[in-house]
Every structure is written in C-alpha cells, then in structure tokens.
Amino acid sequence: MVLDPWWDAALVGVLGLMVGSFLNVVIYRLPRMMERQWAREHADYARSTAGDTAPPAELPDAAPFNLAVPRSRCQSCGHQLRWYENIPVLSYLALRGRCSSCKTSFSARYPAVELLTGALFFYCAQRWGLGPAGLAWCGFSALMVALAFIDWDTTLLPDDLTLPLLWAGLLASVFQWTTIPLADAVLGAAAGYLSLWLVYWGFKLATGKEGMGYGDFKLFAAMGAWFGWQALVPLILMASVVGAVVGIAMKMASSLREGGYVPFGPFLVGAGLIGMVFGPAQVLNLLLGTLGL
C-alpha cells in the first residue's frame, strides 16, 4: 500500500510524457496558426479599404493547418511519422534522433519537452494526489511549459494560453484547489498585470522603446492568480535576476538574436515553476542564498 501513491504518480508522469508530445505540436504550430490568421485579416482589411467587392483570393497557405491537421511529419523531407514513430521519448531513442526516411536529425528539444512535462506531472501527482488539485497543477505546468518555449522561439505569448491560465487560477481558488484565498488571487491577477504594465510604460516613456510585450503582463497576472499577490515580488525578482544573468552570458557569447533582446516570458515561467515546487516564500530565500546575500 505504501507504493500506491508512487505508482499513481508514475502513471500520471506517463500521461505527462504524452501531453509533452502534444505540447511540442502546440509550440510549433500555434504561432504559425496565429501568423496565418493575421495574414487573412490583413488581406481582408486591404480589400475592404480598397473597396474591392470581389471574393477574397485564396492565400498561398490556405491548406488546413491546425493542432490536428496535418499529421506530424519530417520538416526536411515531408515523411509522415507513423504511430510508432510518435511514442514519447522512446521513438526518439529508437530512431537515434533521426528521420527514418532521410536521416535528418530531429531536435533534442522534442524529448526534452516530453521529459520535462512528465517530470512536472509526476511531481504534481506525488504532491497533490490524483484529485482536482493535482490535475489543476498539472494543467498549470503544461501551459507554462508551452508558453516558455513559444516565447523563446517567437517572442509571442498567445492569449489562447495566457488567458485560460489566468481564469484557471481564479477558478482553482474558488474551488479551493489551491490554498490561495479568492481575494488574494484576484488582487494577485490585478497587481501582476498592472505592475508590468507600469514598468512597460515607464520604460517606453524614458527610452522610446518597448521593453516587453502585453503577453508578459497577462502571464504575470496569471501567476498572481495562482500564487496570490504576496508571491509577486519574489517571483519577479527571481525572473529578473536569472533573465539578466542569461542575457549577459548570451551577449558575452555573441549569441543574442537580431535586436539584442531576450524574451522575458521563459524566466517568468521558470520562476513560476520554481515557486510551484518550493513555494513562493522560498523563492526569494533561494535567490538570496544563490547570490550569497
């Protein structure tokens, strides 16, 4: 009987591997779906302003493209992956990280995302069990992982992910799936959004440049809903210090992307996941201990 919780957590961890495989699809496709939507809206707007009453022409990329269609395939040769080539982690190892058709290497990030999600699901199930609280934190983890990698790749934090994360945090408080009182969750969401909004406008007025995007405000608001307003200062300090260290290291290594920017979302996500594991109150202590303060 002692092992039962561990077996339950292990099963949830396996589920996490499968969710991680789906997150790889979300990370790759959702930004491209957004770009296609923007292109369609731009074309419709251009037609309307020009007074064009003709039916809209088909865009070059009008073929169905969403989270389900088309099926996963090699980006190099177009080989459609069979079901046994899509088994999380195991298929990557069996194929030695290469396409079975053209032998082009697949990114090691695919199994890394699967393993990370599986580990987070295992932790959530082991800590909170298989009830609503455990499932809620599994959902929190999955959305955070997807947001981190999408923002790192594209500097986008899609509303399709940040807003459900925010509302889920408030609902988790309402149903007591978290220990955060509803008032603290609501104040956390408002303070999280407004704090970065003020930083954004202060930086823009001072420099004429945009230091971050509105997606960062929404992500921090969601974190406030999940952790409460009391956790916001430790979380933002952790994210800022780690982000600054990584940014300086990338600059010294001449690996900054064009424009010299580093997206802030992944560091917010990292602080949030650390807060989930250690507790927000311990995040600041961990940060100060790391800095020797």
Average pLDDT for all residues: 88
Residue stretches low in confidence (pLDDT < 50, at least 5 long) are none
Number of domains: 2
How much beta, percentage-wise? under 5%
Number of helices: 10
H/E series, N to C?
A: HHHHHHHHHH
Structural class: mainly alpha
Give helix % range. 55-70%
Say how many strands there are. Answer: 0
Question: Tell me about the biggest sheet?
Answer: none
Distance between the termini: 44 Å
Describe this structure in a few short sentences.
The chain is mainly α and 293 residues long. The chain has helices spanning 4-50, 90-94, 109-128, 132-154, 159-174, 182-207, 214-227, 232-252, 265-278, 280-290. The longest helix has 47 residues, at 4-50.
Give the topology:
Elements: H1 4-50, H2 90-94, H3 109-128, H4 132-154, H5 159-174, H6 182-207, H7 214-227, H8 232-252, H9 265-278, H10 280-290
